[in-house]
Design a protein that fits this description.
Elements (H helix, E strand, L loop, with lengths): L6 H14 L20 H9 L3 E3 L5 E2 L2 E2 L3 E5 L9 H6 L4 E5 L14 H11 L12 E2 L4 E8 L5 E4 L2 E7 L12 H7 L4 E7 L3 E8 L20 H9 L12 E7 L11 E8 L12 E8 L10 E4 L14 E4 H6 L11 E8 L3 H18 L12 H11 L12 H15 L2 H12 L7 H18 L7 H9 E9 L16 H7 L32 H35 L2
Parallel strand pairs: 9-11
Antiparallel strand pairs: 1-7, 2-3, 4-5, 5-6, 7-8, 7-10, 8-9, 10-11, 12-18, 13-14, 13-17, 14-15, 15-16, 17-18
Helix pairs in contact: 1-10, 1-14, 4-8, 6-12, 8-13, 10-11, 11-15, 12-13
């Protein structure tokens, strides 16, 4: 669910739960940081003067794509192939856009996002190549690899000397930040740093290079005996105190096909990322979900894998997050928006023998982004969130990740009038209904990961079944191993997080009373009317629309009818009693 917004619903669920227990950015933000962007003459002069500072697209990869296939710019570019809505969101942000002539992901007009994916995937030729995204949010134009942070945090030390260093400024809405404990953590290991060159190298992303997968399979991890796949992966997320927030980075092999090679360099991957519960935001205890694609590099590097992050476009994130494909190091370690500064994270990595599955998924997600940026697909916390958008894409491609079912259908019907009366708001009542009525794999990131893990084990052990779609068949044939990766939370002034809640009821038990709840208010980001295309379909109806209709009819028609019948009965009895 990424973030559970309805506090009245939580109060209602908590009361029932107790009874059942017998009581027991930078840029738009960068505008004030001096980067509103001269990636031209000044930038090239600084790079030339510092040989360890390289353009972010000079070498390496962006997921499945060669980084050299992109050029660096901002969304303000006039000659980009990205749709105008995407350019508007990233108008002040550093991005990478594909070079001219490369195959670009498109979208069909007048159709809903996942119907578009379904129709496109069915018509797609077997063996079709990789479509390029409209843009990749790189976060910064420059990169330094193999650096060490000096003890005082003011220098990046490389083989060629030292580079003056300072971190990018904190976004005003961000309530905590990089501090002395962060410096102590980072100066113990080699680093890759993304940033921009000014009077010093201004770091936006600080990535520990010892966070890698390795060219060979890590040690096998045996799941607890007698547990289901869902329980097994849940136990791994909770094996360490606070979900591993303070524990070392760790990798383990959970399953490997008999006879599959243990040398993984160059292998394509399809990964599922779940970020844990935040320690200082009681709306963010359910975690966050994203799909990752890339290849295992010869040195085991994973920082250049591409994370497909969906986040509400209609609010200004307190972390500066924007919805886009983003390099994994930026997704985890951006000093403001990086998930690693807020909570522990977990990644289930499918090691594949062929790249057709990741190519299909990434190309489809590129189409979904186009529909998302132009608001054909609108973020809605209960059922169009980071988990549901990701899982719906996989299902549209033919991997039917098992459904877990709603949290509680009957409770949803009871919650509607309770919240409507308490809050005097149909909007909040509808959200409460939808939270409880939405399938849990589309609401809760941890539930989505658990069901996906069980499905992957089944596909790897037994192959695809009759009726499985294209993506499921690819995974069944190509899957060689499953790897679990745990990322700790980076030390900072922020409170440490924990493993994500896996049910709405567990979520409720973690949230304190309303007067003690920590909520981060965020301002809206209205979508300009002039960016709305004429072909946009109206949003689909939610389950709560029908619930509201039923309750309104009961209230407007049913209650007066009941009162009238009671009055008639009372009057008949009175008349009968009168001599």
């Amino acid at each position: 669910m990424c973030r559970l917004k309805d506090r009245t619903l939580l109060a209602f669920v908590r009361s029932l739960h107790r009874r059942s227990q017998h009581r027991p950015r930078f840029l738009p933000r960068v505008r004030g940081q001096g980067i509103a962007f001269a990636i031209a003459a000044v930038h090239s002069l600084h790079v030339a003067a510092a040989p360890d500072v390289q353009p972010a697209n000079a070498a390496g990869a962006l997921g499945l794509y060669p980084a050299t296939d992109f050029r660096l710019t901002t969304g303000a570019c006039e000659d980009c192939s990205a749709i105008r809505q995407a350019r508007w969101y990233f108008r002040n942000e550093p991005i990478a856009v594909p070079l001219p002539g490369l195959p670009m992901s498109a979208f069909d007009k007048g159709i809903r996002a996942f119907d578009d994916v379904d129709r496109w995937s069915r018509a797609r030729a077997s063996g079709a190549g990789l479509d390029y995204p409209a843009l990749v949010w790189t976060g910064a134009p420059d990169i330094v690899r193999g650096a060490r942070l000096a003890v005082d945090g003011k220098l990046l030390v490389t083989d060629n000397g030292s580079i003056p260093f300072r971190p990018v400024a904190k976004i005003p809405l961000n309530r905590s930040y990089y501090d002395a404990s962060s410096i102590e953590f980072f100066n113990q290991r080699p680093l890759t740093v993304r940033g921009f060159t000014d009077d010093s190298f201004v770091g936006r992303v600080i990535w520990p290079e010892d966070f890698r997968l390795g060219g060979r399979a890590p040690a096998m991890q045996t799941l607890p005996a007698g547990t289901s796949a869902s329980e097994g992966i849940r136990s791994l997320m909770r094996a360490e105190p606070q979900g591993g927030a303070r524990s070392p980075y760790a990798t383990s092999t959970l399953w490997q096909r008999d006879g599959a090679p243990s040398e993984w360099a160059g292998r394509p991957v399809l990964a599922l990322m779940v970020n844990g519960a935040q320690g200082d935001d009681d709306e963010a205890l359910g975690g966050h979900f994203a799909i990752v694609t890339g290849r295992v590099q010869p040195d085991g590097r994973i920082s250049d894998w591409l994370v497909n992050n969906f986040y509400s476009l209609d609010v200004e994130s307190e972390k500066g997050i924007l919805a886009a494909p983003v390099p994994l190091d930026s997704y985890i370690a951006d000093l403001n928006s990086g998930q690693g500064w807020y909570r522990p994270s977990y990644m289930l990595v499918a090691i594949l023998r062929d790249d057709r599955g990741p190519i299909l998924v990434q190309s489809a997600l590129n189409r979904v982004y186009n529909q998302f940026w132009r608001h054909q697909l609108v973020y809605y916390h209960p059922d169009q969130n980071c988990a549901s958008i990701s899982i719906d894409t996989l299902r549209a491609l033919g991997w039917d990740v098992p459904h877990r079912g709603p949290s509680n259908r009957w409770l949803a019907w009871l919650a509607f009038p309770f919240v409507a009366i308490k809050e005097l708001s149909f909007v909040k009542a509808k959200a409460a209904f939808d939270y409880l009525r939405t399938d849990q794999t589309r609401l809760l990131p941890a539930a989505a990961l658990e069901e996906a893990f069980g499905s992957l084990l089944s596909l790897g052990n037994g192959g695809s079944a009759r009726g499985d779609g294209a993506l499921a068949q690819m995974l069944a044939q190509d899957l060689d191993a499953l790897v679990f990766v745990r990322f700790p939370q980076f030390p900072s002034s922020r409170k440490f997080g924990d493993a994500p809640a896996v049910t709405v009821f567990e979520y409720r038990t973690r949230v304190p009373d309303p007067e003690h709840a920590q909520i981060v208010p965020v301002p809206p980001r209205p979508f300009p009317d002039e960016l709305r295309d004429s072909d946009l379909l109206p949003p689909p109806r939610h389950f709560s629309d029908y619930a509201m209709l039923v309750w309104v009819l009961l209230t407007v028609v049913g209650l007066p009818l009941l009162v009238w019948r009671l009055w008639r009965r009372w009057r008949a009895r009175r008349d009968a009693a009168t001599p």
